[in-house]
Amino acid sequence: MIVQVLGSGDAFGSGGRFHTCFAVLRAGPGFLIDCGASAMISVRRHGLDPNRIAAIVLTHLHGDHFGGLAFFILDAQLVSRRTSPLTIVGPHGLGARLETLMEASFPGSSRARRNFPLEVVEIEPEQPAHVPAAGAVVTGHAVDHPSGSPSLGLRLDCDGRVIAYTGDTAWTEAIVNIGRRADLLLAEAYCFEKKTPFHLDFASLRERLADIGAKKVVLTHMSPDMLSRDRASLAGCEPAEDGMVIEIP
Length: 249
Known about the structure:
By secondary structure, the protein is of the alpha/beta class. Helix content is 21%, strand content 27%. A seven-stranded mixed β-sheet has the order 6-5-4-3-2-1-14. β7 (129-131) and β8 form a beta hairpin.
């Protein structure tokens, strides 16, 4: 199994990075974790076949994390000529917000006939959901990041491995459970020490790394402050880069 970083940027493209998007590629169907507004550009740049993606799992409904769905769905319909089902998983309110997004982006697109089944699955915090399309059990944990619907950190059990992602959030004890002994923890590190409302600073994460006990920690969604730091200051964590490939044995 590999995780390819298609986008590791913050909402404002700091460092010239694409919006949040991670591709989980495995022997079976692959899936995306988040699908920010620029996701399709990165999918094309890195040569990923969109039809290889069977599911998209979302942390929350901000544009830099789910705004690429309209483009992904329209590409599937008009360019990639998808025929296989696509499942989109996310917090309560996803269905209505997706329709609004598509109508704002391409009026009439939410009602257009498609040649592939599209399933929207809304999950509740702390309730594991089996997502056959992704070959994974997805558990969302409530985090501290207002987005007009519940924002979630994610824990995904897939092929005997655990991939965890904080999503965007201020420090919350839920992060310990999200990442506990995960094979890979993708963690927001918006600033190094500065406290920014509803976002995670690296210093707060660093204090609890031993409690979390993840095998590998990759930092993402970094502001210019965080991007300016050298690796020696990152306590063994690895900064994400767009295009980066992470192998999970």
